[in-house]
Structure formats: C-alpha cells, structure tokens
C-alpha cells in the first residue's frame, strides 16, 4: 500500500486542485442546478429563503415545453443553428478549397478571413446592429442603404425585426465571425492529406471530381465533424450577439439562453435552472457520443 | 525549437509547392479565382470600413443618405468620448485577464503533464471528465453558481471573474497541454526517471523548459477568451466594476438613441488589444484554435 501511494500519490496531488474545482464547479453545480429546476422557486422571497419552497418534480419542464413562448425560443434556436452551421461550413470550405493550392498572398487572405474570430461578439454586435438596421427607403442606412446604392433595392428587408425569421439575421454576424475558423480547420485538413494519395489517384486516371469524391472528402470528414461540433455547440449558447444587436426583451430574437437570463432577472430561479437543464441535455446528446468516439479512435492509435 | 514546437506554431502547413502546371502568364481560371478571393476579402472587410469611418464622423454626417460616405469632417470627438467612457473598464479588464490567463495556464500545464506523461490508473477517464467541462452550456450551472459565489463572499467584478475564468478555463488549457506533451519524446522523461528525479523535479527541470511555445498558445487563447467574455460579465459584475464588454454594451445600448459614432469608436477600442495580439502573434493564436479542436 505505501508503495502504491508513493507511485500514485504525487500525480494525483499535482492535479488535485483542478480535480476539486472541476468536481465542484462543473459536476456539483450541474447537480444543484437540476435540483433547483425541480422546485417552485419563482419569486425573490423564495430565492433568499424568506418564503417556503417545495419540490415539484418535472413540473417546470412541462410548463416550459408546453408554453408557446418557449417553443418560439426553441424554434429560433433551431433556425439560428441551421443558418450558422450552413453559412460557416459553406464559406469555410469554399475559402479553404480556394486557398489549398498555391496562391499568391495566401497569408494575407487567410489572416483577413480569420481576423473576426479575434473580436468579441459584443464589439461586432455594435457594427452589425447598424448594418442590420431595419429602416428602408428614404431613411435606410446600413445594408439596406447599400442595396439601394448598388441597385438591389428588392433585397431590402427588416432584418432582425421580422418575427418569424429575425433570428436568421442575427446568425449573419455569427457566420461572419466563425467562417474563418472553419476555413482554418479545413485548410489544415486539406494539407494533412498525403501528396501521394492525390498523385496515385491522378495516375489511375481519376477525374478531378472522382478525386474529391473518393479520396479527399473521406479524408476530410473528421475535420468536418469537428467543425460541426464546435460551431453547433457555440450556436446552442448564443447569447452575446442577441444581447448586443437586439434586446433581451425582444420576442422575435429570443433563444433559450436569453430566456434563462430573463428568468434570472425576475428571480424566477426554478424556470431559469430548468432552461439550463434543457440546454445541457441538448448539448450532451451531441457531445457525449463525440467524446466517446474520440476516446475510441485514440485507443486504436 | 523542437519538432513538437514547430508543429504547434505552424498548425496550417504550407501548400504543396508542386511544380505543377505553372504555365505563367494569363489563365481564365486563375484570374477568376483571384477575383472571387478578392470579392470575399472586401465583403469580410465591410464591417471594418463602417466601424472606422463612422468612428471619425461628426454629427453633421448623421443623415442616413451619407451612411456609407467618408466623413465630411474628420473628428476625434467620438474617440475621446469613448475613451472617457471605457478607460476604467479597460483597465479593470487588464487586471482580470492577466492573472486569469497565467493561473489557468499553469493549472493546464500540470494537468496535461500528469495526464499524458506521468499517468495513473484511470487517467483517460479523468481527462474525459475534465474535457466535458469545456462543452457544458454555462447556463446549466449559472443559478447555483450565483448562489455559491454569494455564499463564499467573492466580491462581484474582477475577483469573481478571475476565479471563473480560471476554473472554466481548466478543460481547454488541459487539452492543449496534454496534446503538446504527448509529442515530447518519452526518452526525455525516462532519462530523468533513471537519474532518480521524482515527478516534481522532472516536471520543473525537464518539461517546463520545453513548454514555452505551448504556454504562449494557451496564454493567448485564455487572454482572448477572457477579454471577449460577456456571459460571465453580465452575471457576475455590474457597470461599476465590470469589464470592457459590459461597459461597451452599456455605451451602445444604454441610451434611447444610439450614438453610433461613439459606440463604434468604443468597439474599436475594446477590440484593439485582442486584434493587436492576433496581428503580432497570429500563428500562436491559430495554434490555439487548432489544438483546441483537433486531437493532437
């Protein structure tokens, strides 16, 4: 036993601060949050314990999932994710494909395409709020004015002020910020493909399309999976951009993360925690299989 | 510079310089390609143009018809106003991100070393459990976190935010360091063990000295994400003690009528440090992006 302790003790000791912190602040709090989500703490008095609260099981989840208001948030989240994912994957792949072969000024193109990644959503929200201004005609500024100037008047629209599609407009700045990241991932993927593979395919007389279809795409699929996971999980947490472009109180652009904040502001801790649990479940359904898959592929190496 | 370090700082290899059809001269395909690349470049830069131009405009340029024009008179008024409004918050943000980045880097380094080079039974499971912390939506811990921080008496503002960025930075810093340490040759560790050095000696005298490139990557990554954070700022600080993202949001959304000139000067001010890091240390920044996404 003492010998074992001498072998296992030091490494465990070295990572114990992190282990304790992660155990408490990740797993512990996830548990407490789930517990809070199953109580009827909906008022300020109850949050401080001045008024009694009791256990209500899954009632809050039922209330949330059946309320049209929250269903609207969920629908928005799906729409936002679809636009965000489709946009970043499309531009990211296209740029990587254009830059894959030797291009003059490659570094310049790459740096400019990627730079929005270094800017906060709040700062980019400031300029996008101006660009996505909903005024049209005489009083138009932003993109609507730009469309007028280049003779594409019909493209003018009210952007994020549309009740059913407004959230898609908020996804535009998100695409602007993250496409460069997806490009960088794909570019690394393209260049990780052994040169011999391409040459061999060409030798065999494969057409360019066949080369992509049977050689390059299969090699790129792990990269594409990483990109989808990263962008998708960012999308589920969408919060900053909506706060800075529209307002948290705006019905048309609200998503679960915004609801969570609004509930918290009115001391409805139980509903707020329940929204958190719902988001966690969605993320877990996506992420846990991915982590397991990563673990397996590592074991095989 | 070891091979591993080279791998970390050149995450995107150069294009194949195969002397393929370099026919030189003019070709339709190539011209089209450059035209497309350039068009995208301009589209990506539209917001930058708007930010810079609007930030120098005076009130005389307020009409929507002049929205896309250059300023009639260039003025620094917006910049001085934004500086007055944001400088205290900028200073607080510096006080927050520097310790947060340094502490979480060291924690990540220790974890990465143990989980890859001085392993114990169950190390992989522990790593996966830590990694999961990277993916949780913070909304799912926020309510009890508010209560816990209140209960522990951590002051709102800078102290709270340092603690939170350190804790929730552990997964990503651990991941990056672990990936990096997996590439250092085992012989180094073994040689140190044969010499009778214990774990701490090995870590301090063999591993830390060759960790510099990885530290640069992780420090930049943590600096950028803490600097740009808004979610924790909203929940754990106020306009009196909060970081620059919160101050900027109040500046841009506080009044009934947005003063766009001021807000945009403010947005540029708030983004300046991270953009500077990106321009000067871009390859390390990308290194962080890559190692944070694709396993070693």
From TrEMBL, chain A:
Chief site of localization: membrane
Membrane-spanning segments: 12-30, 77-99, 111-131, 165-190, 211-234, 269-292
Domain ABC transmembrane type-1: 74-292
Top-level division of the source organism's lineage: Bacteria
SUPFAM superfamilies attached to this UniProt entry: MetI-like (SSF161098)
Gene3D superfamilies: MetI-like
Topology relative to the membrane: Multi-pass membrane protein
CDD domains named among the record's database cross-references: TM_PBP2
UniProt KW Transmembrane keyword: yes
Record InterPro entries: ABC_transporter_permease, MetI-like, MetI-like_sf
Cellular localization per UniProt: Cell membrane
Keywords carried by this UniProt record: Cell membrane, Membrane, Transmembrane, Transmembrane helix, Transport
Similarity comment: Belongs to the binding-protein-dependent transport system permease family.
Designated name of the protein: Sugar ABC transporter permease
Organism: Cellulomonas fulva
High-level lineage: Bacteria, Bacillati, Actinomycetota, Actinomycetes, Micrococcales
UniProtKB/TrEMBL annotation, chain B:
Pfam families referenced in this protein's UniProt entry, alphabetically: BPD_transp_1
Domain of life: Bacteria
CDD domains tied to this protein: TM_PBP2 (cd06261)
InterPro entries: MetI-like (IPR000515), MetI-like_sf (IPR035906)
Main location: membrane
PROSITE patterns named among the record's database cross-references: ABC_TM1
Entry keywords, A to Z: Membrane, Transmembrane, Transmembrane helix, Transport
Parts of the chain that traverse the membrane: 31-52, 96-114, 126-150, 162-181, 202-224, 264-286
ABC transmembrane type-1 domain ranges (all copies): 90-281
UniProt KW Membrane keyword: yes
Membrane topology of the entry: Multi-pass membrane protein
Keyword ATP-binding carried by entry: no
Cellular localisation: Cell membrane; Membrane
Assigned protein family: Belongs to the binding-protein-dependent transport system permease family.
Name assigned to this protein: Carbohydrate ABC transporter permease
Naturally occurring in which organism (per UniProt): Cellulomonas fulva
